[in-house]
């Protein structure tokens, strides 16, 4: 349609770029060939009139920067061009030339401006700064702002980096099921999946009964792909999952979402300390990747979100993570001379105030805590020789708190079974899992990283709702 209205010459240039269609402005700004004829489709960010022409700033979402378009008054339909409002969609063809003005190297001298659609003045994203709270109420439009465009470009780039990291190290990508019958973490936070309505009578008059439900038993949305990943690690060696995870955690905090994405590597023949090495390397790799591949968007965060961001990330890149047994962390916290809201002693779960103290005040860098009391950790973690602690490890990051949770897994059948009994778990539900310990069991380890928490760390954004396209939190499922 649009292509028919432009010259043969332009059509050729456009053909050459057809595989770059989605990143037009980015390509133009990065490797411009002055005088080339170009075709750009995007949305008007601003427009202002001068004598004899109109300046239009357009953005196609491919990068932070806009491209400036000069539309001369001699163009056909110039009256209509002068009515272009913020948010309108246009297709511009013209010559890419060195800009006379300040602020941009290149601009387009338009030979044609086609108005695809005109946005009314009620468009909520007029040029001014909007609060994050307001933008959450229009989550469907916020990716059109500079900041959220940057967040979601980085989110995409990091997803790619995650796959690249593992692929380069010989890991296989496993798709663990989303609907499951086992609550891996045993924390009772599974969302129920059913085709029955609780309280309903079945057609034959019987009350709600899971055995008559779709799967013939109670089922829920996965809280972790780990148990599946373990089965595949014990077959393919090193594997990982990366997918959506669901937790009905009724905590309305800045770092919990009911639906989030988790990356879970699982490694055969791997002990706890090698697991920590992998976690540390992984975090550094992803920070480094963002700094090198998203520099323009990263600068926006350093400028407008967290002025200390670059220093913080640089510090994480260059300092070794502290490795500390949980028991010693308790000692440090007890000797801190502070009154924490939640007192700590051996056997209590650490709260965010404790994580903050360790990472931001005491050590001032990421901390890997390990050997947690077995009473606060799930059934699958390997019991240490002291019989009190398990080979767990959590990576805590300054400003974020827990970003990774992992462990060496219990590979000894008898001890695993005893642990399950101790926790009152129904062994029959886990026979398949226990088979992995019956046949060719080996030491193995893995961890889970919260993808949103990683993005928070890398962008300096402090609320998880602002790094996920359409956040799901208690009482909120608007979009
Ligand atoms: O520590 P968690 O619960 O560990 C597991 O689920 C293990 N099965 C992982 C494994 O060993 N394969 O969760 C792992 C990480 C946390 O460290 C945190 O970063 C993130 O997942 N996370 C959440 N992120 C956002 N919202 C929530 N409600 C989260 N719960 C956990
Ligand atoms: Mg955890």
Fold and architecture overview:
It is a single chain. This protein has helices at residues 8-16, 24-30, 78-81, 132-137, 146-168, 226-236, 272-293, 295-304, 309-318, 326-334, 352-362, 413-422, 431-438, 451-459, and strands spanning 37-50, 53-59, 67-72, 89-98, 106-117, 172-173, 179-180, 192-193, 219-221, 238-246, 259-268, 322-325, 367-373, 389-397, 401-408, 444-450. With 479 residues, it is an alpha+beta fold. It folds into two domains: 2-117, OB fold (Dihydrolipoamide Acetyltransferase, E2P) (Beta Barrel), CATH 2.40.50.140; 142-187 and 223-466, BirA Bifunctional Protein, domain 2. The strands form three sheets. The protein has an eight-stranded mixed β-sheet. A five-stranded mixed barrel has the order 1-2-3-5-4. It is elongated. The two termini are 33 Å apart. The relative contact order is 0.10. The structure holds 4-amino-1,4-dioxobutan-2-aminium adenosine-5'-monophosphate and magnesium ion (MG). Magnesium ion is lined by residues 394, 402, 405. Residues 184-185, 224, 226, 247, 249, 256-257, 260, 262, 264, 402-407, 446-450, 452-453, 464 line the site of 4-amino-1,4-dioxobutan-2-aminium adenosine-5'-monophosphate.
